[in-house]
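To whoever is on call:

I kicked off a structure prediction for a single chain this morning and the downstream step that reads the tokens threw a length-mismatch warning. I double-checked the sequence; it's 377 residues and nothing unusual in it as far as I can see. Pasting both halves so you can look.
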Amino acid sequence: VYYGKATELIKDARAGNVKCHDRKLQQTSGCVLNFYLTVRVATIRDTAIIYHGPVGCSSSALGYRELFRGIPTELGRPEKYELNWITTNLQQKDVVYGASDKLKRAVLEAQKRYDPKAIFILTTCTSGVIGEDIEGAVAEIQPGVKATIVAIHCEGVRSRLVQTGYDAFWHGVLKYLVKKPEKKQKDLVNVASMLSYTWQDRLEIKRLLNKVGLRVNFVPEFATVEQFEQLGEAAVTAPLCPTYTDYISRGLKQEFGVPFFLYPPPTGIRNTDEWLRKIGKYTDKEEEIEALIEEEHKIWSPKLEAIKDEFKKLKGDGEIEVLGALGQGRLLSQLPYFDELGLKSSAALTQDFDNLILEDLERLVDDIGDVDVLVNT
């Protein structure tokens, strides 16, 4: 954990001397497998999931089918959505003697039951502790299975930072699913979008980019296997959260030459303008984007001013303090937005911090001033 001024955090990070502390009491912590990863993989269409571990490690999947069916189909949720999953249900005997045969049988069963286009193998603490050769099992069984097998090394104890699950997932996607581009699609924009940035955000992004003749490849939630396969054909990878998008963006650039940017996320008018302009730069749509921004400002700027006027009435002679953020991506996106609304935000919470956002945090402090930052998983 860390608590202090953003300016001090920047200075210490530059010097490689961040004064973080271990917590005195921690009764629970996040699981790399369950806390962030399962919810992403569970929505991918035409797939099956194998939890390679004790049955309890699959418990987080129990409610996801019902949860995501709550998104109305009229808003664009795919009509065909099933959550197909199997657990290898590792026991004490498997821990002692190994369970690769059990894993292979589970893969064959998943192919037989669901006929998926991809099968995700999610590792657990147990399979990690016994040193199960997941890659060897995949190499052995893949020739006999129609689906593409995607191994994701996401043992719950792999990291004290649950966002490590993002990187593990994207590594598996890059290694097994993304195909070498047959052609480049100049009108295709990759957006790696967690649904904690809401479904309505997706609809708005699609609306804006469609107006200038661009198509959005949203991954991973509700994406098809084909959408992952064509990630390498896009004109650019655009962020909603730099932490979430970092690994896949750099991997697509390194392996397939897809350019990317990590900042800013499209929250608020200023940052959305800049986000659109960067996409326009990579898709040769600069003029269309400027026309779009001008058109949208006429609609939304008066509405924003009306909201600011309401806040002014509420605060009177004082200030309305807002405490926000979640991950470091929201730290960067929310504070400027609060500033646009005329609200004061003198502190922010974030689950994580690393040098990935250091320059952007410096820019943020220059724009809105110093703030207290609490980093706490």
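Update from on-call: the warning came from a stale cache, not from the record. Cleared it. Sanity check on the structure: The first strand starts at residue 2 and ends at 5.
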